[in-house]
Design a protein that fits this description.
The protein has helices at 2-10, 17-32, 36-47, 50-65, 77-99, 111-119, 126-141, 165-173, 178-192, 197-217, 219-226, 230-238, 249-260, 269-281, 289-301; strands at residues 107-110, 149-152. It is an all-alpha fold and 302 residues long. Strands 1-2 form a two-stranded parallel sheet. α6 crosses α7 and α7 (126-141) runs parallel beside α10 (197-217). 36% of the residues are buried. One of its GO terms (biological process) is meiosis I. InterPro entries: Immune_Signaling-Apoptosis_Reg. This is MEI1 protein. It comes from Menura novaehollandiae.
Length: 302
Protein backbone atom coordinates (compact mmCIF):
# COMPACT_ATOMS: atom_id res chain seq x y z
CA UNK A 1 0.00 0.00 0.00
CA UNK A 2 2.92 2.38 0.52
CA UNK A 3 3.54 2.58 -3.23
CA UNK A 4 0.02 3.63 -4.36
CA UNK A 5 -0.61 5.89 -1.34
CA UNK A 6 2.74 7.70 -1.63
CA UNK A 7 2.28 8.03 -5.41
CA UNK A 8 -1.22 9.39 -4.84
CA UNK A 9 0.15 12.00 -2.42
CA UNK A 10 2.72 13.06 -4.99
CA UNK A 11 -0.08 13.90 -7.45
CA UNK A 12 -1.96 16.09 -4.96
CA UNK A 13 -1.78 19.77 -4.15
CA UNK A 14 -1.55 21.08 -0.56
CA UNK A 15 -5.16 22.27 -0.81
CA UNK A 16 -6.38 18.68 -1.30
CA UNK A 17 -6.68 18.32 2.47
CA UNK A 18 -9.50 15.75 2.50
CA UNK A 19 -7.36 13.30 0.54
CA UNK A 20 -3.89 14.24 1.78
CA UNK A 21 -4.47 14.32 5.53
CA UNK A 22 -5.52 10.66 5.93
CA UNK A 23 -2.93 9.61 3.34
CA UNK A 24 -0.07 11.26 5.24
CA UNK A 25 -1.39 9.75 8.46
CA UNK A 26 -1.28 6.34 6.82
CA UNK A 27 2.33 6.87 5.77
CA UNK A 28 3.22 8.07 9.27
CA UNK A 29 1.71 5.06 11.01
CA UNK A 30 3.20 2.71 8.42
CA UNK A 31 6.61 3.91 9.59
CA UNK A 32 5.86 3.57 13.28
CA UNK A 33 3.67 0.47 13.50
CA UNK A 34 5.77 -2.01 11.51
CA UNK A 35 8.71 -4.29 12.27
CA UNK A 36 12.28 -2.88 12.12
CA UNK A 37 12.99 -4.84 8.92
CA UNK A 38 9.85 -3.54 7.21
CA UNK A 39 10.48 -0.09 8.62
CA UNK A 40 13.79 0.18 6.82
CA UNK A 41 12.13 -0.77 3.52
CA UNK A 42 9.26 1.67 4.16
CA UNK A 43 11.71 4.53 4.70
CA UNK A 44 13.50 3.62 1.46
CA UNK A 45 10.20 3.60 -0.43
CA UNK A 46 9.14 7.02 0.84
CA UNK A 47 12.54 8.68 0.42
CA UNK A 48 12.81 7.42 -3.16
CA UNK A 49 9.52 9.10 -4.08
CA UNK A 50 10.58 12.53 -5.34
CA UNK A 51 7.00 13.69 -5.97
CA UNK A 52 6.03 12.89 -2.37
CA UNK A 53 8.99 14.83 -0.96
CA UNK A 54 8.21 17.79 -3.22
CA UNK A 55 4.62 17.69 -1.94
CA UNK A 56 5.84 17.61 1.68
CA UNK A 57 8.01 20.64 0.94
CA UNK A 58 4.95 22.55 -0.25
CA UNK A 59 2.85 21.42 2.73
CA UNK A 60 5.45 22.62 5.26
CA UNK A 61 5.73 25.97 3.48
CA UNK A 62 1.97 26.44 3.91
CA UNK A 63 2.63 26.78 7.67
CA UNK A 64 3.75 30.35 7.01
CA UNK A 65 1.29 31.08 4.17
CA UNK A 66 -2.10 29.97 5.48
CA UNK A 67 -4.01 32.36 7.71
CA UNK A 68 -4.24 31.49 11.43
CA UNK A 69 -7.55 29.99 12.62
CA UNK A 70 -10.09 31.72 14.84
CA UNK A 71 -8.35 30.63 18.04
CA UNK A 72 -5.58 28.42 19.44
CA UNK A 73 -8.07 25.67 20.31
CA UNK A 74 -9.55 25.50 16.80
CA UNK A 75 -8.03 22.86 14.49
CA UNK A 76 -9.04 23.41 10.88
CA UNK A 77 -8.58 20.83 8.13
CA UNK A 78 -5.58 22.83 6.92
CA UNK A 79 -4.00 22.74 10.39
CA UNK A 80 -4.63 18.99 10.61
CA UNK A 81 -2.78 18.52 7.31
CA UNK A 82 0.14 20.63 8.59
CA UNK A 83 0.32 18.49 11.74
CA UNK A 84 0.48 15.32 9.65
CA UNK A 85 3.14 16.85 7.39
CA UNK A 86 5.42 17.98 10.23
CA UNK A 87 5.10 14.65 12.06
CA UNK A 88 5.85 12.65 8.91
CA UNK A 89 8.92 14.75 8.07
CA UNK A 90 10.17 14.46 11.67
CA UNK A 91 9.85 10.67 11.39
CA UNK A 92 11.61 10.59 8.02
CA UNK A 93 14.49 12.61 9.51
CA UNK A 94 14.75 10.17 12.40
CA UNK A 95 14.63 6.97 10.37
CA UNK A 96 16.75 8.22 7.46
CA UNK A 97 19.50 8.88 9.98
CA UNK A 98 18.99 5.54 11.72
CA UNK A 99 19.19 3.45 8.55
CA UNK A 100 21.43 5.79 6.52
CA UNK A 101 18.88 5.63 3.71
CA UNK A 102 19.70 7.16 0.34
CA UNK A 103 17.97 10.51 -0.23
CA UNK A 104 16.67 11.36 -3.73
CA UNK A 105 15.22 14.79 -2.90
CA UNK A 106 16.10 17.17 -0.07
CA UNK A 107 13.75 19.37 1.96
CA UNK A 108 14.64 23.02 2.49
CA UNK A 109 13.49 24.96 5.54
CA UNK A 110 14.20 28.37 7.01
CA UNK A 111 15.28 27.70 10.60
CA UNK A 112 14.23 31.19 11.70
CA UNK A 113 10.66 30.54 10.53
CA UNK A 114 10.54 27.20 12.36
CA UNK A 115 11.79 28.77 15.59
CA UNK A 116 9.47 31.76 15.27
CA UNK A 117 6.49 29.42 14.91
CA UNK A 118 7.19 28.24 18.46
CA UNK A 119 8.53 31.51 19.87
CA UNK A 120 5.64 33.73 18.72
CA UNK A 121 2.94 31.03 18.42
CA UNK A 122 0.49 33.39 16.59
CA UNK A 123 -2.68 31.52 17.62
CA UNK A 124 -1.35 28.19 16.38
CA UNK A 125 -3.32 25.20 17.75
CA UNK A 126 -1.64 23.08 20.40
CA UNK A 127 -1.39 20.03 18.13
CA UNK A 128 0.40 22.03 15.42
CA UNK A 129 2.87 23.43 17.97
CA UNK A 130 3.54 19.92 19.23
CA UNK A 131 4.11 18.68 15.68
CA UNK A 132 6.58 21.47 14.88
CA UNK A 133 8.43 20.77 18.15
CA UNK A 134 8.69 17.11 17.17
CA UNK A 135 10.39 18.20 13.96
CA UNK A 136 12.65 20.61 15.85
CA UNK A 137 13.69 17.81 18.22
CA UNK A 138 14.56 15.54 15.30
CA UNK A 139 16.67 18.28 13.68
CA UNK A 140 18.43 19.13 16.97
CA UNK A 141 19.27 15.48 17.63
CA UNK A 142 21.07 15.40 14.26
CA UNK A 143 22.81 18.75 14.79
CA UNK A 144 20.89 20.11 11.76
CA UNK A 145 23.15 17.99 9.54
CA UNK A 146 20.71 15.48 8.03
CA UNK A 147 21.24 14.60 4.38
CA UNK A 148 17.46 14.95 3.98
CA UNK A 149 17.29 18.50 5.32
CA UNK A 150 18.83 21.71 4.01
CA UNK A 151 18.72 24.63 6.45
CA UNK A 152 18.41 27.97 4.68
CA UNK A 153 18.73 31.45 6.14
CA UNK A 154 21.40 30.23 8.52
CA UNK A 155 22.95 32.71 10.92
CA UNK A 156 26.35 33.79 9.70
CA UNK A 157 29.03 35.35 11.87
CA UNK A 158 30.25 38.61 10.41
CA UNK A 159 34.00 39.08 10.40
CA UNK A 160 34.10 42.53 11.99
CA UNK A 161 37.30 44.14 13.18
CA UNK A 162 36.05 43.84 16.76
CA UNK A 163 33.82 40.77 16.92
CA UNK A 164 31.15 40.80 19.60
CA UNK A 165 31.21 38.07 22.29
CA UNK A 166 27.77 36.95 21.13
CA UNK A 167 29.22 36.38 17.65
CA UNK A 168 31.68 33.86 19.04
CA UNK A 169 28.83 32.08 20.83
CA UNK A 170 26.74 32.13 17.64
CA UNK A 171 29.62 30.48 15.79
CA UNK A 172 29.71 27.69 18.39
CA UNK A 173 25.93 27.19 18.31
CA UNK A 174 25.61 27.44 14.51
CA UNK A 175 23.09 27.42 12.89
CA UNK A 176 21.31 28.71 16.02
CA UNK A 177 21.99 32.19 17.35
CA UNK A 178 22.38 32.82 21.07
CA UNK A 179 19.42 35.22 21.12
CA UNK A 180 17.26 32.61 19.37
CA UNK A 181 18.16 30.06 22.04
CA UNK A 182 17.12 32.35 24.90
CA UNK A 183 13.91 33.38 23.11
CA UNK A 184 13.07 29.73 22.48
CA UNK A 185 13.71 28.73 26.11
CA UNK A 186 11.50 31.55 27.44
CA UNK A 187 8.73 30.63 25.01
CA UNK A 188 8.89 26.96 26.01
CA UNK A 189 8.66 27.98 29.66
CA UNK A 190 5.60 30.09 28.90
CA UNK A 191 3.95 27.18 27.09
CA UNK A 192 4.51 24.97 30.15
CA UNK A 193 2.49 27.35 32.30
CA UNK A 194 -0.63 26.44 30.26
CA UNK A 195 -0.53 23.01 31.97
CA UNK A 196 -1.83 21.22 28.88
CA UNK A 197 -0.71 17.57 29.18
CA UNK A 198 0.15 16.98 25.52
CA UNK A 199 1.83 20.37 25.21
CA UNK A 200 3.77 19.90 28.48
CA UNK A 201 5.16 16.55 27.34
CA UNK A 202 6.30 18.02 24.03
CA UNK A 203 7.80 21.14 25.64
CA UNK A 204 9.83 19.25 28.24
CA UNK A 205 11.08 16.82 25.58
CA UNK A 206 12.09 19.78 23.39
CA UNK A 207 13.90 21.41 26.33
CA UNK A 208 15.77 18.17 27.03
CA UNK A 209 16.92 17.86 23.41
CA UNK A 210 17.84 21.55 23.20
CA UNK A 211 19.97 21.31 26.36
CA UNK A 212 21.78 18.25 25.00
CA UNK A 213 22.50 20.15 21.78
CA UNK A 214 23.76 23.21 23.67
CA UNK A 215 25.95 21.16 26.01
CA UNK A 216 27.72 19.53 23.07
CA UNK A 217 28.14 22.83 21.21
CA UNK A 218 29.04 25.17 24.12
CA UNK A 219 28.94 23.99 27.73
CA UNK A 220 29.08 27.53 29.12
CA UNK A 221 25.94 28.54 27.25
CA UNK A 222 24.16 25.31 28.27
CA UNK A 223 24.94 25.79 31.97
CA UNK A 224 23.99 29.47 31.75
CA UNK A 225 20.61 28.58 30.22
CA UNK A 226 20.00 25.85 32.82
CA UNK A 227 20.71 28.19 35.75
CA UNK A 228 18.35 31.03 34.77
CA UNK A 229 16.37 32.12 37.90
CA UNK A 230 13.15 32.09 35.85
CA UNK A 231 13.27 28.26 35.96
CA UNK A 232 12.67 28.30 39.71
CA UNK A 233 9.66 30.57 39.32
CA UNK A 234 8.41 28.17 36.62
CA UNK A 235 8.64 25.23 39.03
CA UNK A 236 6.68 27.12 41.71
CA UNK A 237 4.05 27.94 39.07
CA UNK A 238 3.74 24.30 38.00
CA UNK A 239 3.39 23.23 41.64
CA UNK A 240 0.71 25.83 42.39
CA UNK A 241 -3.00 25.18 42.34
CA UNK A 242 -4.57 21.81 43.05
CA UNK A 243 -1.58 19.59 42.22
CA UNK A 244 1.19 20.42 44.67
CA UNK A 245 2.88 17.05 44.36
CA UNK A 246 6.35 16.83 42.90
CA UNK A 247 5.27 13.53 41.34
CA UNK A 248 4.02 15.10 38.12
CA UNK A 249 5.79 13.83 34.98
CA UNK A 250 6.69 17.28 33.59
CA UNK A 251 7.91 18.49 37.00
CA UNK A 252 10.03 15.37 37.51
CA UNK A 253 11.59 15.66 34.07
CA UNK A 254 12.35 19.34 34.62
CA UNK A 255 13.94 18.52 37.96
CA UNK A 256 16.00 15.82 36.26
CA UNK A 257 17.18 18.39 33.73
CA UNK A 258 18.31 20.79 36.46
CA UNK A 259 20.09 18.04 38.40
CA UNK A 260 21.84 16.89 35.23
CA UNK A 261 23.19 20.36 34.53
CA UNK A 262 24.01 21.07 38.18
CA UNK A 263 21.62 24.00 38.59
CA UNK A 264 21.80 24.13 42.38
CA UNK A 265 20.19 27.59 42.42
CA UNK A 266 17.08 26.08 40.75
CA UNK A 267 16.75 22.78 42.60
CA UNK A 268 18.21 22.39 46.08
CA UNK A 269 18.95 19.39 48.27
CA UNK A 270 15.69 20.15 50.07
CA UNK A 271 13.59 19.67 46.91
CA UNK A 272 15.47 16.47 46.04
CA UNK A 273 14.69 15.15 49.53
CA UNK A 274 11.03 16.10 49.15
CA UNK A 275 10.75 14.19 45.89
CA UNK A 276 12.40 11.10 47.37
CA UNK A 277 10.09 11.35 50.40
CA UNK A 278 6.97 11.63 48.22
CA UNK A 279 8.13 8.65 46.16
CA UNK A 280 8.69 6.62 49.35
CA UNK A 281 5.17 7.38 50.56
CA UNK A 282 3.44 6.81 47.21
CA UNK A 283 1.95 3.53 46.03
CA UNK A 284 4.33 2.99 43.12
CA UNK A 285 2.12 0.33 41.54
CA UNK A 286 -0.68 2.90 41.12
CA UNK A 287 1.47 5.62 39.55
CA UNK A 288 0.75 6.39 35.86
CA UNK A 289 3.31 4.99 33.42
CA UNK A 290 4.58 8.47 32.49
CA UNK A 291 5.14 9.33 36.16
CA UNK A 292 6.93 6.04 36.88
CA UNK A 293 9.23 6.56 33.91
CA UNK A 294 9.99 10.18 34.89
CA UNK A 295 10.66 9.15 38.50
CA UNK A 296 13.02 6.41 37.30
CA UNK A 297 14.99 8.94 35.22
CA UNK A 298 15.14 11.39 38.12
CA UNK A 299 16.42 8.84 40.65
CA UNK A 300 19.01 7.50 38.19
CA UNK A 301 20.24 11.06 37.56
CA UNK A 302 20.45 11.81 41.30
Amino acid sequence: LLFPVSNLCGKCRPRDTDLLQPSLNFLYWSLHQTTPCSQQRAVAVLLSNVSLLELLQKVLECTWLWSPPSGPAYLSSEDALLCSGWLLVASLLLYQHRYNTEVHQTLSLDLTQVLNAVIFRNKKPVLLLVSIMQFLRAALRQNFSSSLLVIIGQNTVQSATQPQPSSLQDAALHPLATQQVFSLVVSLQNLLVHKDLLLSQAVVACLETLMEYLYVKNQDVALHVASQPWHRFLLFTLLSGGQKSFLQPEVLRLMTLFVRYQSSNIISQKEISQIVQEAAEANLAELPEATSYALHLFLCQV
